[in-house]
Every structure is written in structure tokens, then in C-alpha cells.
Amino acid sequence: MANIHNQINKFWFNPSYQKFKQSSFVKTIFTKKDANDFLKTGAYLIQEAEKLSNIHIPWHEDKRFKILANPRLENAFVSLGAEYLLKGVFLVNGYTINKPLVRIVNHPIKVWGNTERLNLTAVQELGYIVTHLPQIVNFSKFDNNQQQEEIKAKQQVKGERLDGITRLTIPYPTSKQWLDYILFKRNYSLHRPFIIPEFRGITKQLFNFLNYIAKHGIGEEIKSLAKLTK
């Protein structure tokens, strides 16, 4: 107890941004043993985001901030939840999320055999994670299913027309496009109090995509991972 007390006192003596970043409290090489902390936190946030996405309040200008609180929280939860989940998938499959200290040619980088070459205080940004995730998770089944669902949707409305509406079906993005969207939400949308308009079907696709990552990345669904107690 005394040791922790002294460490915290030292940590808060003349604090600065760089001192926070270099603190002993954040020095760690994340490994497979840390995966559940990322996965379960991410899944919980994603599940909470999905609940918020199902809340619909009729628009009234006087209730503007109350109404917008739900989609803004959903945006924050799904953005951070996705980052935790994806980093957890890296870890559980034996890949590091720590940045390398030296140039390493092959990415993603395995933790085993590389711990001495990894940065104790720097973790990869989400852009790196989404770039290399397809080397860990096979998205061919997801992409094929998206194609089939789009064909089915077009067949259901074939021949129908609505004045002023150029397309009756919604898009069915590929896995690459979904990863780009997640990166956008995390790195751009999350830092601004505005909401990108989404079709309800698009929102469902996003949560289905994240569940696909959980199932095919670690063999467990979001619903199961989101349980924070045994």
C-alpha cells in the first residue's frame, strides 16, 4: 500500500502530458493474457451502443439535446468498443498491439519472439489495426453474404418506383468499407458532436459486422463476450 501511495505521489508531482505517457503505470507489453480486458470491454460498449440505436424519439426542437444524446452516445460507444474489440482479436491470436521500437518488415507482428523490440509505452492506432485485421480474420464469407443480401433486396423491389427516390434498396458495404467506416467514426466523427445519417438497415449491418469479427476472430459472439460476470 505504501509503495502504491508513493508511486502515485511521484506520478502527480509536476505532471505533464509527456510524463503521463512515460509513466510506469502505462508501461506494458500487451499479450494474450490481456485479451479479455479488451474483448469484454469492447463487446460491452458495442452492446450498449446497439441498445441506444433502438431508441427512437420523435423530433422536437425543444428536446434537441435529449434526443441527440442517444445517437451521440451510441457513436462514442461503438467507436471505442470497436477499437477495443479489434485490438483484443489481435491479442488473442498472438499479435501485438504495441508499436515496434525498430523497423519490422512483416506485419502484423507476433508477440512471441519480439517482446524486446516492442515499445512499452506506445500502442498502435486504429488505422494500423483495421489495415492488418484481414490477415487475421477471413472476411470472404461476410463479403459473399453481403453480395447475396443485396441481390435479394433488389429482387424484392424489382419494377417498383417512387418519385424522387433514385434507389429503393440500401447499400451493402464490403468488409473493407466497413472497416473504413469504423476508422472514420473513431478518428473523425467521434471528435465532433454531429451524427452521420444512417439507414436503420445500415446500422444493423454494422453491428452484424462487429459480431462477425467476434465470431470469426475468437469464436465467440458479442452477446456472450459482453457479460462482465461469469
In short:
The protein is mostly helical and 230 residues long. The protein is 53% helix and 4% strand. The chain has a two-stranded antiparallel sheet with strand order 1-2.
Q: Identify the strand order in the major beta sheet.
A: 1-2
CA-atom Rg in angstroms: 21 Å
- Shape annotation: globular
**Strand segment tally:** 2
**What kind of sheet is the major sheet?**
2 strands, antiparallel
Helix coverage percent: 40-55%
Number of domains: 1
Along the chain, the helix and strand elements come as HHHHEEHHHHH
Termini separation comes to: 29 Å
Q: Tally the helices.
A: 9
Mean pLDDT: 93
Structural class: mainly alpha
- Proportion of β residues? under 5%
Low-confidence stretches: none
Structure, described:
The structure is a single chain. The chain has 230 residues and is mainly α. The protein is 53% helix and 4% strand. Helix 3 packs antiparallel against helix 4 (64-92) and helix 4 crosses helix 7. It starts with a helix and ends in a 5-residue tail after the last helix.
